[in-house]
């Protein structure tokens, strides 16, 4: 059986690793990037807290000594279900069983100006672009004598009050608190302005009220301006326009307001649901197909009684679906009945600042230092590669002890233009 996996995120990589060494199964993993990375921590790359290498590992390194797994570096263009192959930008790849695990991409809700000018935070490249932009803006601020221009440069708007938005806003506020005075003496006495905007009535919408209230309290304590129940409607000429008519002058809008499933051309139209998610049955098989499966954020599975509207688009459902599908492929070869997917909810969490986090567990709620250490432990364990875990742990410890991460480097093949920063 040849299993072709498109996408090497949480879902795809757990499926591939679970099939390693299995007799009678050949695995080919296709991904646009040549590396796996850990999305929950890319905001720390964006805020100059950790290096991309701390949360990334090349697929070929990961698959060393796994004889039945091969990697193919390419991007999916479309699927040809009738002939059991996919077309990529690097050629055709055949399959016996196809698994779609490409995840999601940033959703701009049709706002072209936002798409063109805002900074997304979905990939390693996005995170590096934010890092470069923020640091370049600070250098620009150091050379600026005009008070009004300085206010604009030092303003950052974050759109999206989910975990990523809360985490990046908190990290940016901490950077202003601990780093600016030491690194940018020219800006002493100048306050950065961090504004977090969300269309919902609360932060951390899917989490408990205790977590929502604690996140709001801690962000305000850090000096973050939180604007709820109002959406970003446009971003042009360095002005963020809100639905309530308010206009915020800034060169920097970080957009983490929503996602949409990546497109899988070639599937039956009837198998595509809300937000482009692929409709699947209890075994993750795509509706209207015979040998195509979808797992992780890209799929919409409504057969789980506890989650009739589908599972949350977070890491754990993707990991569990990948692991179960691997077992079901083995069962197929052995002629055994397949097992339906049931999600085991292990809780959710968000970090706000140093020693401040919120954790919702199935049997309780935690906040403060205990929640923060829980967050650290849970995020260290899934990082690919023992060496990466060690590097990340010591990087975190040094940064937290000194309040002075040392990787504030502007590294880009396309340095920000002066006009992009703001005159």
What can be said about this structure in brief?
By secondary structure, this protein is of the alpha/beta class. It contains 13 helices and 25 strands.
Structure description:
The protein folds into two domains: 2-32 and 74-106 and 259-334, FAD/NAD(P)-binding domain (3-Layer(bba) Sandwich); 112-257 and 354-421, FAD/NAD(P)-binding domain. The longest helix is centred in the C-terminal third of the chain and has 20 residues, at 315-334. A hairpin with a 2-residue loop joins β24 (356-361) and β25 (364-367). The protein is α/β, with parallel strands linked by helices and 423 residues long. The chain is built from 13 helices and 25 strands. It has a five-stranded parallel sheet, covered by helices on one side.
């Amino acid at each position: 059986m040849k299993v072709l996996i498109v996408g090497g995120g949480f879902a795809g990589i757990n499926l591939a690793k679970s099939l390693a060494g299995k007799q009678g199964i050949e695995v080919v993993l296709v991904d646009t990037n040549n590396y796996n990375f850990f999305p929950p921590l890319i905001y720390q790359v964006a805020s100059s807290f950790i290096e991309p290498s701390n949360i990334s590992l090349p697929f070929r390194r990961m698959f060393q000594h796994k004889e039945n797994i091969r990697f193919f570096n390419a991007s999916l263009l479309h699927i040809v279900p009738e002939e059991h192959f996919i077309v990529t930008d690097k050629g055709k790849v055949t399959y016996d069983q196809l698994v779609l695990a490409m995840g999601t991409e940033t959703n701009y809700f049709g706002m072209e100006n936002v798409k063109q000018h805002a900074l997304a935070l979905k990939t390693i490249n996005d995170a590096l672009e934010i890092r470069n932009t923020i640091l370049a803006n600070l250098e620009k601020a150091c050379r600026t004598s005009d008070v009004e221009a300085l206010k604009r440069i030092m303003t950052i708007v974050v759109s999206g009050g989910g975990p990523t938005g809360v985490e990046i806003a908190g990290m940016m506020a901490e950077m202003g608190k601990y780093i600016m005075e030491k690194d940018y003496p020219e800006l002493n006495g100048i306050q950065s302005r961090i504004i977090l905007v969300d269309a919902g009535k609360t932060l951390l919408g899917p989490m408990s009220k205790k977590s929502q209230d604690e996140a709001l309290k801690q962000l305000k304590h850090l000096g973050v301006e939180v604007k709820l129940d109002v959406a970003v409607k446009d971003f042009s000429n360095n002005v963020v326009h809100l639905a309530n008519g308010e206009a915020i002058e800034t060169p920097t809008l970080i957009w983490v307001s929503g996602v949409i499933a990546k497109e899988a051309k070639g599937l039956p139209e009837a198998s595509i649901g809300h937000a482009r998610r692929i409709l699947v049955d209890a075994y993750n098989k795509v509706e209207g197909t015979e040998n195509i499966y979808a797992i992780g954020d890209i799929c919409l599975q409504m057969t789980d009684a506890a989650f009739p509207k589908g599972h949350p688009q977070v890491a754990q459902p993707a990991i569990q679906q990948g692991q179960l599908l691997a077992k079901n492929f083995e069962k197929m070869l052995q002629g055994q009945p397949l097992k339906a997917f049931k999600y085991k909810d292990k809780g959710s969490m968000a970090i706000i600042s140093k020693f401040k986090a919120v954790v919702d567990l199935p049997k309780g709620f935690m906040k403060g230092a205990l929640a923060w250490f829980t967050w650290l432990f849970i995020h260290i364990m899934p990082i690919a590669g023992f060496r990466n875990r060690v590097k990340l742990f010591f990087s975190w410890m040094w940064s937290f002890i000194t309040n002075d991460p040392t990787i504030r480097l502007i590294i880009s093949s396309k340095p920000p233009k002066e006009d992009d920063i703001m005159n």
